Amino acid sequence: MSDANSANQTSVLRRSVNSWTATATSAGLAFAAIDYLGVVSILAYAPGATAAFAVFIGGLIVVLVAGIFSELNGLYPTAAGIRLYLGRAVGSRTALSVTFTYMATVILVISADAFLIAAAIRHVLHEPAPLAYLWIVVLLGVALGANLKGVRLAGWLQTVVTYTVLLGTSVLSVVAIFHVGGAFKHPFNLFGKGAFSGVQAVAFALFLYAAFEWVTTTAEEVRTPRVITRALFIAPLLIWAVSTLFVLGLSHLVPYATLHHSAIPQLLVGKAALGTVGEIWMLTLTVLTALNTFNGGFLVASRFIYATAREGSLPRPFARLNLQAVPWLAVTSLAVTSAVVAAIVLATGQWLLLVSVGAAIEAGIYALGSLCILLLRKREQRERPFRLIAARPLATIGVVLFSVMFVATAFANPKNASHFSIAPFVVIAVLGALSTTYVLTTVPRLQREAAARASATRTKRRPTRVTTASDVESS
Amino acid sequence: MADWDEIAEALVDYTKNCNTNERLRKMQRDWSRVLHFACSDSDVTFTMNVDHGEIISTAMGHAGAPDIVVTTTSETFCDMFWGDLNPVQKYLRGEIKVKGSQEDVMRLDAISFVIWPDA
Q1: Is this prediction's ipTM beyond 0.95?
Q2: Which of A109, A129, A401, A449 is least surrounded by CB atoms within 10 angstroms?
Q3: A373 touches A364 (CB < 8 A)
Q4: pTM greater than the 0.95 cutoff
Q5: Hey, is the C-beta of B107 within 8 angstroms of any chain A C-beta?
């Protein structure tokens, strides 16, 4: 056994993901176009520069999330990690159901980005509103075509795109902060909009960092789990710095009344800071964020669908591959679903609902991650490459804190901060109910059918080995 | 526990199935990789070289820098190369460990899926 392990350790991958790329992947997954709207949601509860304080507290909380996912990634360093640690902690059916709901956030983010970019392009080109539908179809069509052809962003290009978006947003934000004529009109008060508003502001601030933990799906591409751990701790720092600058720049130059009903806050601050150049600047960055979202989102979600169909938990056609070895039905379904969701958002104008739903699901996942740490500390005695210090008290705090964050966002109404709304919770409850029903009723049927088909059509191919006396002795 | 002879026998069959499958060859035409395999229950290791979708060699021991490293029990390797088990089910249970890019991991599974769709 030890020989095998040592042999395995000498097999160093020819190409592996380094810390820079892993950090860029983590930051790139988190910093999507929907984050610009996330900032508007924070401003709804913490106006002016107070929002930067909420982003800071959110960043502190994310350090705990980074610790939790570092330990879980160290225990299960695989793309299927979430299924494994949730499965060991709360059972395989619950794990599958939660993973389905989690994957729904990927569709939400893809839809949101398609919608936001379409809205931004339409705005800059001064086109009539219905043309935004066309842009959504064009954007998702291009993403679909590229995915079906097996076109991937090279690791280095993804890294360049991410750092360009982060740097470009920071530079424009600094220009906005020092722009003459702006002012921070609101007093510094985290609870100025009610006793719970501070919690809601922090919960939405947490959303700016959301999805940074998806870098754990590249756990098989790194030489050591430490690379992922490093990315999990560095990426939030980058997001914190950029988001803080953007929040300050936005609240300094653009009145909240203007942002209130806008789906293009980044263009508004661009225009206010540098005129048309700033607007084009921010449009370019918005389109660039889509490269990461469409590339990473389609890849993560379609491969999850493929693996789940191969496992027998989704209908078999979802595992069908085209000649580029791409699961074409999975990718096409993702694109069509995203287009439908984006069109619904455009028709209803409920883009901040996407932010609330995404923020609540992420908070729920962080609560579950904390619970997994608590349960797996008892059940898994294996050595971990990363151990969360004071794991029991911190994970307990995590369960409580992220549950509160879930409630804070699942019942939020950023369009009218002094009111609550059950709409985000209803969307999450429907998604959760659908996936739970599917896991409890359809999955067992699919698995029975697969077993029956296999026994009817296949015989064991491996020749039966004749056991000799020496075999018995050696065993 | 399977020994190298058993694994080698399975590999011969696997190689024949892969290299004679037209659809698979077309699908993997741009796929050239070095794969390392390690048995977790013995000291058996082996290397597979794939050139433009064709398995050109499988040999005992590790040679060259790998693009993918697969670790599992010798029995699982045998069943996998004979097409008697679904590798994804074992992978999702953490019984097969893989190092490599997500794309390569999926392509590796795609081989089994194309040649034994009912496994």
Answers
A1: no
A2: A129
A3: no
A4: no
A5: yes
